Amino acid sequence: MTDRRLILSLCTAQVLTMAGVFAFPALLPSFVAEWGLSKTEAGWIAGLYFVTYALAAPPIMALTDRIDARLVFFVGALTTALAAAGFALLAQGFWTALLFRVLAGASLAATYLPGLRALVDRYQGNKSSRAISFYTSSFSLGTALSFLAAGETAAAFGWRAAFALCALAGLAAALVPLLLAARRPERPAATRHLLDFRPVFANRRALAFILGYGVHCWELFANRSWLVAFLAFGLALDCGADRDMSPTTVATLSGLVAMAASITGNELCVRFGRIRVIVLVMFAAALLAAGFGFAAVLPYPLLAALALLYAAVIQLDSAALTAGAIEAAGPGQSGATLAVHAFVGFSGAGLGPLLLGVVLDATGSGASSLSWGLGFASVAVVGLLGPLALALGRTTQKRRSSRSM
Predict the structure, then answer these.
(1) How far is residue 398 from each of residues 35, 128, 392, measured CA to CA in Å?
(2) Cα dihedral sign for 10, 11, 15, 16?
(3) Which pLDDT value is given to residue 405?
(4) How many whole angstroms separate alpha carbon 326 and alpha carbon 141?
(5) Closest residue by Cα to residue 57 from 108, 10, 98
(6) Cα 28–Cα 30–Cα 36 angle in degrees, nearest 5
(7) What pLDDT, on the 0 to 100 scale, is given for residue 397?
(8) Cβ distance 211 to 392 under 8 Å?
(9) Quick check: 182 and 62 in contact, CB under 8 A?
(10) Which of 3, 68, 93, 363 sits in a 20 to 30 Å window from 126, CA-based?
(11) Considering just the CA atoms, what is the radius of gyration of the chain in Å?
(12) Among 226, 225, 245, 221, which residue's Cα sits nearest to residue 235?
């Protein structure tokens, strides 16, 4: 398989497995109304999905240092289908929804980064960061299609049909790894326990990108998990707004914008320096988060445009952070490095939506622009920690440069 077909195949498989990732956030207002969920309960369902991912990813990704990642992806895709089918058939309220979203979070851990590992192990080109950026940016394409498919299918046939469609997409994705040639992963330089991540934590340059990724995911998934509900609130305030541009449509467009931004961000890093660009992007994202919630009072078209701008800025550093972690990994430690990368990143992804929900409940349950403003301001505070994390990598680079002179 050529490099181009390899990238296209694995990106397609990833997008298919992501059909259900944002199905719950896309339909959140409906679930809140039908099941009587509080904002905190909704935050738990949205956030625990990614916490489960964070807990499942380390052993799964460490396993890809021992066995072919395509096999891991195959099992993960089947689990994706099982989780979506279970939600479609059996979800009745908070606890059953939580159960199947937890299973879905574990399945994402067995597909997203194992798919990236399968790509990296087989890619033969010179500029691997570009291949990585295409794959990681496809996460945003999957996000867009997840919002779109869930919203349109639920509007026509109900939310259970939307999750049934996600199950079929998971089954289709399971076919892709069967097309790839077998590949034995590079063995670590020294024999170590499967879950021994000490070499990764000792690698300060890789750790800087990993911590930065944790901050990035906190911001990204807090925004994506609550975007539809926030835009619905803003739309309700603007009585004269055009209803054709629904919150779900804006969320879909934000995923497409984010995909282009992720690829663009990686190219900016190649030209101007990875850490420099990432730090500037993180400051800009925190600034936008600080004012985003308060902007609910703006005319809805302006609010929608601001949402797309915010989505683009958040995503500019996504591919760059992952590429930085992979390139900084030691020999035979790619899987272990991605395991820690996933754990830290998606721990932030789980806590972000939850904390935003807690802040909303504590400030009026999202019934005012002040409540939403304070909710997104909490995201801004976390975002400012990102540049501090990247300072670790910059210090390490300077030390290495001074030693080599």
Answers:
(1) 54, 24, 10
(2) negative
(3) 41
(4) 22
(5) 108
(6) 90
(7) 53
(8) yes
(9) no
(10) 68
(11) 20
(12) 245
pLDDT at 126: 67
What count of other Cβ atoms lies within 10 Å of the Cβ of residue 158? 14
Residue type for 182, please?
A
In this prediction, residue 394 carries a pLDDT of 61
Identity of the residue numbered 381: V
56 CB neighbour count, 10 Å cutoff: 22
Burial class (CB in 10 A: 0-12, 13-18, 19+), 4: exposed
Type and span of the H or E element at 173? helix 159-173
Task: Print burial letters for 313-344: b (CB count within 10 Å at least 16), e (below 16).
Answer: bbbbbbbbbbbbbbbbbeebbbbbbbbbbbbb
Alpha helices in 18-127 (DSSP H): 23-26, 28-35, 39-63, 69-90, 94-109, 112-122
Place of tokens 């500037």: 280
Structure tokens at 395: 């210090």
Structure tokens given for 150:
């869930």
Q: Is the dihedral of CA 286, 291, 296, 298 positive or negative?
A: negative
Round to whole Å and give the CA distance between 26 and 228: 6
Among residues 212, 177, 175, 228, the alpha carbon closest in space to that of 344 is found at: 212
- Which of 72, 339, 348, 30 lies closest to 219 in space, CA to CA? 348
In this structure, what token pair is assigned to residue 119? 């790509």
Residue with tokens 């800087």: 208
Q: In sequence order, what are the residues at sequence separation of 6 or more whose Cβ sits closer than 8 angstroms to the Cβ of residue 94?
A: 35, 37, 41, 44, 45
Delineate the domains of the chain, giving CATH numbers in brackets.
3-179+197-404 (1.20.1250.20)
Could you give the CA distance from residue 287 to residue 377 in angstroms, rounded to a whole number? 9
Whether the pTM exceeds 0.85: the reply is: no
Instruction: Tell me what pLDDT residue 267 has.
Output: 87
Question: What is the mean pLDDT of each successive set of 10 residues along the chain, which is 405 residues long?
Answer: 87 94 89 90 87 88 86 96 96 94 94 90 75 84 89 93 96 94 69 72 90 94 91 87 79 88 88 90 96 95 95 91 87 82 87 91 92 96 91 59 44
Look up tokens 């078209």; give the residue: 301
